[in-house]
Structure formats: C-alpha cells, structure tokens
Amino acid sequence: MDYIEILPRREGTVVRNIRSFSAAEILDCGQCFRWENTAENTWRGVAFGRVCTLVEEEGALYFPHASVEEFKRVWFDYFDFGRDYNEIKALLCQDKNAARAVDFCPGMRVLRQEPWEALCSFIISQNNNIKRIRGIVARLCEFFGEPLGDGLYAFPAPQRLTGLQKEDLEPLRCGFRAEYILHAAQMVAGGDIDLQAMYTMNLDSAREQLRRIRGVGPKVAECALLYGMGRVECVPVDVWISRVLERMYPQGLPSEMASVGGIAQQYLFHYARHSPAFAGDA
DNA sequence: TACCAGGGCCTTT
DNA sequence: AAAGGCCATGGT
User: Fold this and answer.
1) Lower Cβ count inside 10 Å, N or C end of chain A?
2) Residue A217 CB closer than 7 angstroms to strand C?
3) Which of A205, A255, A270 is nearest to A231 (CA)?
C-alpha cells in the first residue's frame, strides 16, 4: 500500500511518498473538464465547490491553499489516495497489452468526482470533443454556479437549473444537449433519482435508473458511475476503447480485471489516444 | 432498419 | 483556406 505522508507547511499542505501520480495524465485525459495547467508543474481546478491549487514537486505534491484538515476531508478522496494503485497496476501488468498501457501512463488515476457534476459533464460530453466540452462546462459554471473568486465558479447544483427553459441555456452553446441537462437536473433535484444511493446500490439498477434520463445512454451512464459514483468496475466504451477491444481483447477484457475494469479502461484509453505505438500498429 | 440532427474541433487536402 | 470526419443519443 502507498503510505502517503500528509504534513502541514507554513502555507498549505504537502503530501509525500506519493507514487502513481501524474497531474498531466490525470487532469488532462478527458475524465474531468475543470482543471487548468496554470504554470510550470501547477494546476488549478474546482471541485466540491472549492478551488484547489496543486503543485508537483520532487517526490511530493504541494497544496498551497489547503489545510491538512481540508486535504484529508476533500482532496484525499478526490484524488483516490485511499486506493492502492501499485497493487492494481501489478494485477493489470500480468496482461501484456495492459502492461504497455500502464507503462505509458504510470501516474494515471481515476478521480472520485461529485456525482451530479460527473453525470452532467458526461451528458455534455456525448458526440463532442474535449475542447468543446470544457468550454460548455466552463460557461455552465460561469452562468449558473456560485462565484468562488478569481473568476472561478462552483459547478451549479441541479436545484439551480430546475425551472429553466432550454432557451436559458443558449449561451452555453451546447446544442441539443440543453434539454438533456434540464431533464437530468429535474430528475435529480426532484428526487426521482438518488445519485448518492448509486455508490452502493446494485449496479444494473443504477444503470437502469440513470438511463431514465433523456440523453443518458449506456456510455454516459457508465461514465457517471465510474467517475461520479466510484464504481470502478464500470467500463465506458467509446470509439477509442472499442478500438482497443477490437485489437487487443477480441474476447473482452480478461475476467481478472473485471473488478477494476474502469481503471484498466483509463490506462488503455490514454494509451490508445496518445501512444504512437498504438496508432502505428494496424 | 438505416439515417440524420446539432456544432465545433480536428486532420487532411 | 476549404473540405470532410468525428462523436452518443434520440427521433424519424
């Protein structure tokens, strides 16, 4: 297990003995849409209604604006420090293909984002590219989220969006997704769907409930469960993963990986999109 | 069943 | 600079 050390600094918190962490791999891989590389080794983002600054140092991570208490309460779980990635990587690397992907991005992790933000973000993500998704999400937060200073905004709660008409979302320029967002907000705010319960409930029931939302198909439901509800056995299949499955796993992912299939998918997705080796190999 | 809407980014030409 | 491909879902 990674035993990370969490220590106060005069300003903020430093975390040492971190393995398996690369901010670029984690924050710029299409699993989240609100982090920016603001300076060398420095990233700034918003999650759980809080601004977070993160500096990658030699063998450590520095959170200049987070107290030890806030780190433990919010960011420890968000960055999934409670999970032993070394153990998972060891398991995945028994397979030759997965080992290549893990070697390509050994600092990858699956974030534990807020359920509503993940659901809403991945509704926006459908039939869309990462650049544009980031723009739409940014405008959604600017128009409807609580200001947090520094020109940053919280992700708007579903309650904030109920009662809006799709015309009200025109400034987001999200096209046909506007009515999907509003329908999702109504279902969640109205209690028709309990996102919190989806952390632990039967997986197929969760999938079924999510798919009652207009605009939520199998891919989006799987993304919401994986990135928003901590369901790491979920494997969203987009075109990239579909290529990976075709070429590397025509019989499907090995059953040994099933319990962490979503994490395996994260390595493989990044590998397929960015490795010249994958692109070059017909 | 097959096909298209919606729109902006990307790659190729 | 222009053209064409891409994308997840729902509706026709």
Assistant:
1) C
2) yes
3) A205
